[in-house]
């Protein structure tokens, strides 16, 4: 026989849930059920950072030797690149692909728009190590916007490897299996393009899911995600970061980033 809750009981339950979320705000940022899990393809760079590593921050100094950048995805739609340029943004990355099942429908407007306004641009791939092999995803990325050209305005592709928005944080892989998957992607990307891909990650995820593996640091530039006043302790092997995503709520559209060097260093990375 069904139990009928009174209106008072419903209100008390809602109050209790609201109190819990107020006391532990990160709970509200995480899926509460399968129905709350994002749709495949909707993942974007840094979407798990606030939920796992903390809230947005602002760099403690406006270092003149750093160059402002931005990263965007289909989430932003058509981007007003002239506005970003006027705000001082000089480089940009656009999400091209995810897994082997998604391409960004706004990729052309975003990727070409950044280039046409005068920015140095690149593209990134959101990795899903639980769906296909690293090499397979590298090929998909290169075939759908992740290539490289030596025109001096195209940055090497980025592997976005971070929390799984659709399930277990490490995609059900052991630390050694994750390292192998990443190695497969990076090896194939270089075979296809001649460039070493950038690795975008957060130190906490890297430690949890790769065992803080340091073997990629000698070849692959690090793009660290940390929404705080400084980039914090870097993953093993990297003595410095190349790029730092410091906020998801910058003064203009997209996540905002610092390149660890003046504009000529951004150009040098583009030229290879």
In short:
This protein has helices at 7-23, 49-53, 81-86, 107-117, 134-143, 175-193, 203-210, 263-271; strands at 67-72, 91-98, 102-103, 120-126, 158-160, 198-201, 222-225, 243-247, 255-259. The protein is of the alpha/beta class and 272 residues long.
Write the layout of secondary structure elements.
Layout: H1 7-23, H2 49-53, E1 67-72, H3 81-86, E2 91-98, E3 102-103, H4 107-117, E4 120-126, H5 134-143, E5 158-160, H6 175-193, E6 198-201, H7 203-210, E7 222-225, E8 243-247, E9 255-259, H8 263-271
Helix pairs in contact: 5-6
What do the pLDDT scores average to? 87
CATH H-level superfamily of the largest domain: Glycosidases
Order of strands across the main sheet: 1-2-4-5-6-7-8-9
Enter the CATH topology name of the largest domain.
Answer: TIM Barrel
- Helix vs. strand class: alpha/beta
- For the record, the CATH architecture of the largest domain stands as Alpha-Beta Barrel
* Structural shape: globular
Largest sheet: 8 strands, mixed, barrel
Share of helix, binned: 25-40%
Can you count the beta strands? 9
The SSE string, one letter per element, is: HHEHEEHEHEHEHEEEH
End-to-end CA span? 71 Å
Name of the level-1 CATH class of the largest domain = Alpha Beta
Instruction: Return residue spans where pLDDT drops below 50 for at least 5 consecutive residues.
Output: 1-34
Strand fraction equals 15-25%
Number of domains: 2
Any overview of this molecule?
Residues 1-34 have low confidence and may be disordered. The chain has an eight-stranded mixed β-barrel with strand order 1-2-4-5-6-7-8-9, surrounded by four helices. It has 272 residues and is α/β, with parallel strands linked by helices. It is built from eight helices and nine strands. Helix 5 packs parallel to helix 6 (175-193). It has two domains: 1-30; 49-271, TIM Barrel. Helix 6 links the parallel strand 5 (158-160) and strand 6 (198-201). The chain is 31% helix and 16% strand.
């Amino acid at each position: 026989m069904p139990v009928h809750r009174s209106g008072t009981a419903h209100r008390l339950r809602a109050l209790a849930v609201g109190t819990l979320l107020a006391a532990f705000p990160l709970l509200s940022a995480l899926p509460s059920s399968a129905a709350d899990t994002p749709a495949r393809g909707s993942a974007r760079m840094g979407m798990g950072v606030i939920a796992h590593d903390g809230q947005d921050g602002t760099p403690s100094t406006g270092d003149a030797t750093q160059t402002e950048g931005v990263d965007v995805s289909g989430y932003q739609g058509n981007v007003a690149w002239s506005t970003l340029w006027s705000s001082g943004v000089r480089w940009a990355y656009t999400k091209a692909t995810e897994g082997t099942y998604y391409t960004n429908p706004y990729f052309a407007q975003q990727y070409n728009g950044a280039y046409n306004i005068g920015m140095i641009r690149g593209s990134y791939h959101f990795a899903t190590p639980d769906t296909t092999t690293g090499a397979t995803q590298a090929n998909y990325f290169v075939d759908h916007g992740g290539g490289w050209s030596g025109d001096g305005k195209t940055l090497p592709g980025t592997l976005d490897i971070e929390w799984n928005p659709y399930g277990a944080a490490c995609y059900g892989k052991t630390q050694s299996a994750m390292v192998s998957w990443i190695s497969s992607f990076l090896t194939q990307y270089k075979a296809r393009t001649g460039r070493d891909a950038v690795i975008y990650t957060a130190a906490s995820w890297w430690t949890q899911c790769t065992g803080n593996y340091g073997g990629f640091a000698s070849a692959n530039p690090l793009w660290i995600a940390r929404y705080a006043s400084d980039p914090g302790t870097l993953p093993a092997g990297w003595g410095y970061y190349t790029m730092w995503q410091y906020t998801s709520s910058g003064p203009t559209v997209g996540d905002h980033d610092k390149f660890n060097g003046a504009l000529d260093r951004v150009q040098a990375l583009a030229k290879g």
